[in-house]
Amino acid sequence: MGSLETRDPNKRRLIEASEHHKHEVEKEVRSLSDKTEKMIINGLIIGGSLAITYLIVSQWGGSKSKKKKAKAREREIAAEAEDDNGLVVPSLISQIGNKVISQASIILLDIVKEKLLEYLESRKKGDENS
Question: Which one of 1, 9, 18, 117 has the minimum C-beta count within 10 Å?
Answer without folding.
Answer: 1
